[in-house]
Amino acid sequence: MTGWGELGAAALDLLVPQACAGCGRPGVAWCAACARSCMGGPLVVPGQLPTAAASAHAGPAAAAVSAYKDAGAHRLGGPLAGLLAGAVVTVVDGLPGPPALPIWLVPVPARRDARRTRGMDHMRELAGRAAGRLRRAGRPANRLDALHHVGTSRDQVGLDRGQRHANVRGTLAAAGPLPSGLFVVVDDVTTTGATLGEAARALRVADPRARLAAATITWARPTSAAHPHLASPRGHD
Known about the structure:
This protein is α/β, with parallel strands linked by helices. Helix content is 38%, strand content 17%.
């Protein structure tokens, strides 16, 4: 955060009392201790698409995601964008071969009902902020709003792996032609990779040669194959 940003945040704290979204500590929207707890190292998420997540979907990270998108805690946009940018760096640097540039962050679009309820497309906002952080770090990154909904899907909570993939299949399309570079699909939470896979499918329809990866803020790791109904957080995946 810049000096002016810190002054603005301090002034806002005086006007509207804040509590940390991660631990409830009064005075700030996101405390240093909770920020450190999310920096244990990005997670490589298994699946067909190279994917990294900044943190497990637990503790302060999970609370921050939920507060940002469902409770209107917009001041968490900066910290969450930072986590997302870190996951992007992890997956990009882990790809084989020479780097494909520029980097396009492709947000999974919010469903219309969710966008109306929240008053924003939260991943569109976070992708833009994460791209800005990457540019300031010397990486040529931009947001690309390539995906849009062409079908409807229900919330993924309570669906098993097969149901999740069936639920989102054919619901996204990509506007083409796509520019050259690397396309990193970004979302807030992934569990089984169903939504990320659908986004990748749509991008490959638009450009079969597109080089793809994915990054998310958190990974809600399935706890056991013996329990196929996954009680993951509300979200795309």
